[in-house]
Design brief:
- By secondary structure, the chain is α+β, with helices and mostly antiparallel strands.
- A 9-stranded mixed sheet has the order 1-2-3-4-5-6-7-9-8, sandwiched between helices.
Length: 196
């Protein structure tokens, strides 16, 4: 897996290139594929995400999202990425967000996968690649993630990628309109790598 920095054409540098996939920041040209994938996956994603705003799948809302993403990257606050197959098909996305520097050197991982691509190992590969990017390029020490206890697939994904369960946070995030408990996981830069 090769890691790349920022600064390529159209402000959409490839962050990570893996075996058959790549991760890069979203750009405006991604809107049609993103809107189609999110719309087709809405029922699949709804139980695990915050309530979508009424205008969520509009071009204007996507443009605002990109402005926020660019500002977050420039401020070293978050690193949103879309996950693409090498043939250019958008499969999902992930974010290394809430970057905390100083004595913490930590980020929070969030991710989503389009229904058509779920359960095939793509997100496991992407999470491993994003973690390598976070530790090698962003110089983070720790990546945190959380998932609702009913999301067995997400729990298995995190554990497959080497994350350790650290506890339960009560009413941690507002998911699908309700405050939900979350299992908390973390991966440290010196944790043994897992490939299975």
């Amino acid at each position: 897996m090769a890691l790349f920095g920022f600064g390529s054409q159209k402000d959409a540098a490839v962050f990570v290139r893996g075996d058959g996939f790549y991760l890069r920041p979203p750009e405006m040209d991604d809107f049609p594929a993103w809107a189609r994938l999110r719309a087709a996956s809405r029922d699949f994603l709804t139980p695990w995400e915050p309530v979508w705003p009424a205008d969520d799948l509009t071009r204007g809302a996507f443009r605002q999202r990109l402005r926020r993403y660019r500002a977050d990257i420039a401020d070293d606050a978050a690193y949103p990425m879309f996950l693409f197959r090498d043939d250019g098909a958008l499969m999902g996305g992930l974010t290394l967000g809430q970057v905390r520097r100083g004595v913490s050197q930590t980020a929070t991982l969030g991710y989503w996968m389009g229904k058509a691509f779920a359960g095939k190992g793509h997100m496991s590969q992407a999470v491993r690649a994003a973690a390598a990017f976070a530790f090698a390029e962003l110089r983070l020490h720790r990546i945190e993630a959380g998932c609702v206890p009913e999301n067995i697939a997400s729990m298995k994904l995190l554990e497959r990628c080497g994350f350790h369960r650290e506890g339960l946070a009560r009413a941690y995030l507002r998911i699908n309109g309700q405050w939900r408990d979350h299992l908390l996981y973390a991966l440290l830069e010196n944790d043994p790598a897992r490939t299975g």
